[in-house]
Amino acid sequence: MPPWLSVTILVALGVALLLGMAKGWRRLNRGPADVPAPPTVPADADLGEARTEPLAATYVSTTRAGDWLDRVGSHGLGVRSAATVQVWTSGVVVRRRGAPDVFVPRAALRAVGTSGGMAGKVVGGEGLVVLTWVPSPDDDPRGLETGLRLRHRQEADVLRAATQTLIGSTPAASGSEESS
Questions:
Q1: Where are the domains of the chain?
Q2: N or C: lower Cβ tally within 10 Å for the chain?
């Protein structure tokens, strides 16, 4: 095979690869109509009483509930980042470095559990804390799942227990699943 043909084939493959990556990134960053923006984080005075200290974590990603590979990219929800997570009486606040903060109001929480992985991170075992929530009542009742990898295992237990307390004190929405 002549060298010019080899180079042409490699360039064509490279261009096809770049176009496929661009198409995938556009799919990931779906428009705001597809997934509503999460609520803005209220001022600390409006959050109520702190139920945990700020816990060091890695925000892994947010996916559609029930499909751990369907990452939501809009509103910065697909950006993996270092974070601190704290449970307040009004909800769960995830303060992220280099990405928008995420606030999950108590009324939006549906379940808290663990998982071995989700889009962006596979840790094995049950190393991720997963919050299942519905951004607004008009949305898909399955909602979204947000994965957090806590720095220390005992902190993951604290986060799950405090979040479970919030869910237990919130009237269940129709069609919601039980917390695991």
A1: 1-30, 44-168
A2: N
CATH level 2 (architecture), domain 44-168: Roll (2.30)
pTM: 0.74
Closest by CA position to 166, among listed 69, 72, 93, 66: 93
Cβ count within 10 A of residue 125 = 10
Q: How many CB atoms lie within 10 A of CB 61?
A: 24
Contact 109, 131 (CB under 8 A): yes
Q: What is the pLDDT of residue 67?
A: 82
pLDDT tens-digit map of 54-94: 999 999 988 888 887 777 877 888 888 999 999 999 999 99
Question: Under a CB-based contact definition with an 8 Å cutoff, are residues 150 and 57 in contact?
Answer: yes
Given a contact cutoff of 8 angstroms between Cβ atoms, the answer to whether 92 and 166 are in contact is yes
